[in-house]
Amino acid sequence: MNRKRFWLCTGLLAVLVSTTSIYSVQQRAKRPSVERMSAASIKTVSHTTGSHSQSLIKTLPVASPQNPWTIWPVAPKKGQTYTVVAIGGSAADGTGDSAGEGGYLARAFRTINSTQDVSYHFINQSKVGYGPIQYDDTQLSRTFLNDSQMARLFNDYKPNMLVISFGMLDDIFKKTPMSQIKQALHDEIESAMNQHVVVVIVTPPSTYASETYYKAPLNAYVQAEMDVVDGFHNPNIYVLPLAEQMDQYIESHHQNIKMYEADSWHPNAAGHALAGNLLAQDFIQRFLLATTKS
């Protein structure tokens, strides 16, 4: 009798252990691997260029320059004002445009605000004669290391977005070394990244100089700018190829760059208007299609 009871208890214990082991294996199979999820998330984000993907934003960690795959928003939420600061030279400042229009950058953001259900507060800090190294004053003197011009811009205006649009013609004329240009652009972009500020690079509008006697050097400077952007491997930096789009528009409409020049270095009012419209359309297509006003 005792022997039968012993074997009965042993059999019940074996069944219990077997059942528990099977359940444990099934539960482990249902659990997603943390390592596998992390790899999949990184791969998905690295191939995403649009920053308005709500499903992605919800799964990403807190924005940080140390986490370059965090995609920062480029559009204001409903009822929110989004501050944009621009830096560039004389064309970006509006030289050649009609009085009060402000140039192609100001025109573009006015068009965006008037046609989209968004509110961008545009502040143009572009200056005549300025190129990348004039904003990177840390290259000019070490006394600016703790109070650089870019640091003051971020402190004074607290922008959500930095627009960089240099014409580069002054630097070509002065033969500014490419290494200095690249270092300055790197420093300006890095300063924005450190402040969680989205960067939008706008290539310069077409001019007579950029289409003729300065075409080759300007292409080289713009390529250097793209190399700097590529070096960050960061999707919070966007490039809007305004020069290419303007060239394509003029060619497809069988026009001539002379129609759009105030002088060989600057667009006239028609040139600023065309550049502003093309830039606004590109911006809207990339970021704001869901916010069009009804």
UniProtKB/TrEMBL annotation:
<keyword id="KW-0732">Signal</keyword>
<protein>
    <submittedName>
        <fullName>SGNH/GDSL hydrolase family protein</fullName>
    </submittedName>
</protein>
<feature type="domain" description="SGNH hydrolase-type esterase">
    <location>
        <begin position="86"/>
        <end position="274"/>
    </location>
</feature>
<dbReference type="InterPro" id="IPR036514">
    <property type="entry name" value="SGNH_hydro_sf"/>
</dbReference>
<keyword id="KW-0378">Hydrolase</keyword>
<dbReference type="Pfam" id="PF13472">
    <property type="entry name" value="Lipase_GDSL_2"/>
</dbReference>
<feature type="signal peptide">
    <location>
        <begin position="1"/>
        <end position="23"/>
    </location>
</feature>
<dbReference type="GO" id="GO:0016787">
    <property type="term" value="F:hydrolase activity"/>
</dbReference>
<dbReference type="InterPro" id="IPR013830">
    <property type="entry name" value="SGNH_hydro"/>
</dbReference>
